[in-house]
Automatic annotation (TrEMBL):
Pfam families: Cytidylate_kin, EPSP_synthase. Its EC number is 2.5.1.19, 2.7.4.25. The lineage of its organism: Bacteria, Pseudomonadati, Pseudomonadota, Betaproteobacteria, Burkholderiales. It comes from Comamonas terrigena. It is found in: Cytoplasm. Pathway: Metabolic intermediate biosynthesis; chorismate biosynthesis; chorismate from D-erythrose 4-phosphate and phosphoenolpyruvate: step 6/7. GO terms for molecular function: 3-phosphoshikimate 1-carboxyvinyltransferase activity; ATP binding; CMP kinase activity; dCMP kinase activity. Belongs to the EPSP synthase family. Belongs to the cytidylate kinase family. Type 1 subfamily. One of its GO terms (cellular component) is cytoplasm. InterPro entries: Cytidylate_kin, Cytidylate_kinase_dom, Enolpyruvate_Tfrase_dom, Enolpyruvate_Tfrase_sf, EPSP_synthase, EPSP_synthase_CS, P-loop_NTPase, RNA3'P_cycl/enolpyr_Trfase_a/b. This is Multifunctional fusion protein.
Length: 680
């Protein structure tokens, strides 16, 4: 997951390949609660690991459920041993539920029926999300729920219910604000239906029926057969009792699939690929959002599907504008809003009033961000109408505000396919953690763009000037990959020395062949492996640096390493540190920095660095070595160390590393097309 303040997506060109989707959030949290309420242990496969499931798991542990392992581990099932329909008398807890509506609503209902002493809390946005209709429904039954702040909204206090006054009358609940209220009741009321049936009556039109369908399907798996009377009345039969199904599998999120369905529809296919293949969800899905496929087809997508997969390619191009009632696909429909940017006319998405009370006011958010990209947008109480920019020149480079809303972040990533070739900035990219923590990694894995579109920031300079330190921090702030090219020469020196080769010009070809035959691996935590052996420390000695300087003078060695270095240029971008990044390896890089510092200063820093790593160091020897290394690196014939003509020079003798990093970030920001006010 990208934890940067913003993530810049370069202009993307094509898509193709296979993407495996994470488990559905709606199914994950429903299954967790149902398993927790049941008798027995439920082994859950493919549970989503996200903010929402984490708060749910934490809440269930507080209620006394046993959960093994403690947290979701990729590829491993998680086992939940339930409470068997009742809590020990006097159970008390304060549950923090973040911004997870899928935890707040059903847990409130279940705990209000079970009784105890609970406080239901969350983040400030949670306190703006209505829950009054659910509380009103539960009070009809005799549940004790009080508002701790504003009436109608969390936080809540839950006490011991008194069912004595309840006359068996149907429990009424509004269906036109959020179907999560009905879902919450459907999951909580079986706890009270051991002796007599309970009927729930929906007041007003029921929105988001597909989510109720998921709830009913899952209830059936846990032993509760609800009679659905035309989506108006739901009867939970007497004798209902939660029973674990033993094992259950969580389908992938059909709304997460929407971004990749849209991707297949709007991106040209990467040569050699036949569109985008999506694994984890297919045409037999129990999720309503799978009907996004029909909407995408109406816009021109070509879709094939099977039991657990979808295959999507570009069909009609440009896409066809549509006018669609989106009540059946409330979440996935946001993706249509961005697809509309690539359509041949004005698209209208109707019946989306529920967008206003989601993670943010999604109608307002979509309208604002689509306009930033150059679209003409009309918004109404329950619709949005989008006209794309008239031509490529009408597109604007935008910094997309994401409102702590995962879906805004994910759907706007698709704007990177704009015909103007503009990058798109996604602010606060980690908000995707709510449902799809590795969304951007998954996207980059199936997208392609010509190498020259992928930004590279080059940081060259002499030994000890601070290149490595500054480059690593700039890469971290931007979410870019990092190339420590010096490590390649250090490895070359190491393997040649180990092979008993003298580091002399007469051996240059043999050394070049030797390094070309090694299996090199650079891990995300900056370790370096050669044929599986971790050499991170072995290449950091001063001797290794000197040996690197020697082998780096051989043209054969330099050319053997060119391909390896170019391969680092991958989405979303690269920061490359070395001697010839800007002059030879990435001559067209959009930003080149030449970092210098006095020899005295560099020697002192290197001394401290070596000592802190527990490596031997001598100030005088270091000083002499640096001068020797500078001389060799600067005066060799092949790719000598010198500033590229278009490099910006930064004297790093006096300031802090942080100041140098900020200077590079400022230079980079100045070269970006985003408006200064929007810089992250
Ligand atoms: N202003 C500064 N910029 C960069 N590094 C600094 C600065 N001040 C002190 N240092 C320290 O100096 C050392 C620089 O070494 P390094 O980044 O490996 O340089 P290079 O990659 O250019 O050889 C690090 O230990 C770093 O913590
Ligand atoms: N792009 C590069 C990077 C390093 N080299 C050579 C020259 C340097 O003396 C050695 C070691 O580089 P490295 O950046 O690891 O060394 P320092 O950390 O700056 O001391 O490799 C090179 O020739 N070209």
């Amino acid at each position: 997951m990208y934890r940067t303040a913003f993530l810049d997506l370069p202009a993307l060109a094509t898509a193709g390949g296979t993407v495996s989707l994470p488990g559905s959030k709606s199914i994950s949290n429903r299954v967790l609660l149902l398993a927790a309420l049941s008798q027995g242990t439920t082994t859950i496969q493919d549970l989503l690991d996200s903010d929402d499931t984490r708060v749910m798991l934490a809440g269930l542990k507080q209620l006394g459920c046993t959960i093994t392992p403690d947290a979701v581990t990729p590829g491993q099932p998680i086992a939940v041993t339930g409470i068997g329909g009742r809590l020990p008398a006097g159970t008390a807890a304060t549950l923090f539920l973040g911004n997870a509506g899928t935890a707040m609503r059903p847990l409130t209902a279940a705990l209000a029926v079970l009784g105890g002493n609970f406080e239901m809390t969350g983040v400030p946005r949670m306190y703006e999300r209505p829950i009054g209709d659910l509380v009103d429904a539960l009070r009809q039954l005799g549940c004790q729920i009080d508002y701790l702040k504003d009436a109608g909204f969390p936080p809540l206090k839950i006490g011991q219910p008194d069912f004595s006054a309840w006359s068996d009358a149907p429990i009424q609940v509004r269906g036109d604000v959020s179907s999560q209220f009905l879902t919450a009741l459907l999951m909580a009321l079986p706890l009270q239906a051991a002796d007599k049936a309970i009927t729930i009556e929906v007041v007003g039109e029921l929105i988001s029926k597909p989510y109720i369908h998921i709830t009913l399907e899952l209830l059936a798996r846990f032993g509760i057969q609800v009679h659905n009377e035309n989506w108006q009345r739901f009867v939970i039969p007497a004798g209902s009792r939660y029973q674990s199904p033993g094992a259950i599998h969580v389908e992938a999120d059909a709304s997460s699939a929407s971004y990749f369905i849209a991707l297949g529809a709007l991106a040209a296919a990467t040569p050699g690929q036949t569109g985008v293949r999506i694994l984890g969800v297919g045409k037999d899905s129990i999720q309503g959002d799978i009907r996004f496929v029909e909407a995408a087809q109406a816009m021109g997508a070509q879709v094939e599907s099977g039991p657990n997969w979808l295959q999507v390619g570009r069909g009609t191009w440009p896409l066809k504008a549509i006018d669609l009632d989106c009540n059946h696909i409330p979440d996935a429909a946001m993706t249509l809003g961005v697809m509309a940017l690539y359509a041949d006319g004005t698209t209208t998405l109707r019946n989306i009033a529920s967008w206003r009370v989601k993670e943010t006011d999604r109608i307002a958010a979509m309208a604002c961000e689509l306009r930033k990209l150059g679209a003409t947008v009309e918004e109404g109480a329950d619709y949005i109408r989008i006209t794309p920019p008239a031509s490529a020149t009408g597109w604007k480079a935008a910094s997309i505000h994401t409102y702590d809303d995962h879906r805004v972040a994910m759907c706007f990533a698709l704007a990177a396919f704009n015909p103007a070739g503009l990058p798109v900035r996604i602010e606060d990219p980690q908000c995707v953690g709510k449902t799809f923590p590795d969304f951007f990694e998954s996207l980059f894995a199936v997208c392609d763009t010509p190498a020259q579109q992928i930004p590279v920031i080059c940081i060259d300079g002499p030994s000890g000037s601070g290149k490595g330190t500054v480059a690593a921090q700039v890469a971290e702030r931007l979410g870019y990959r990092l190339l420590d090219s010096g490590a390649l020469y250090r490895i070359t020196g190491l393997v040649a020395t180990r092979a008993g080769m003298a580091l002399e010009a007469t051996n240059a070809e043999r050394i070049a062949a030797l390094i070309a035959a090694q299996q090199l691996e650079f891990t995300s935590d900056q370790r370096v492996l050669v044929n599986g052996e971790d050499v991170s420390l072995a290449i950091r000695t001063e001797e290794a640096g000197m040996n690197a300087s020697k082998v780096s003078a051989f043209p054969a060695v330099r050319s053997a390493l060119v391909g390896v270095q170019h391969a680092f240029r991958a989405l979303p971008g690269l920061v490359a540190d070395g001697r010839d990044m800007g002059t030879v390896i990435f001559p067209h890089a959009p930003l080149k920095v030449y970092l210098t510092a006095s020899v005295q200063c560099r020697a002192e820093r290197r001394y401290k660095q070596l000592i802190s790593k527990g490596l031997p160091a001598n100030m005088q020897a270091l000083f002499a070595d640096l001068e020797a290394r500078d001389a060799r690196d600067m005066h060799r014939a092949a790719a000598p160390l010198k500033p590229a003509e278009d490099a910006l020079q930064l004297d790093n003798s006096t300031g802090t590393a942080e100041e140098a990093v900020q200077q590079v970030m400022d230079w980079w920001a100045a070269r970006q097309p985003f408006a200064p006010a929007a810089q992250g």
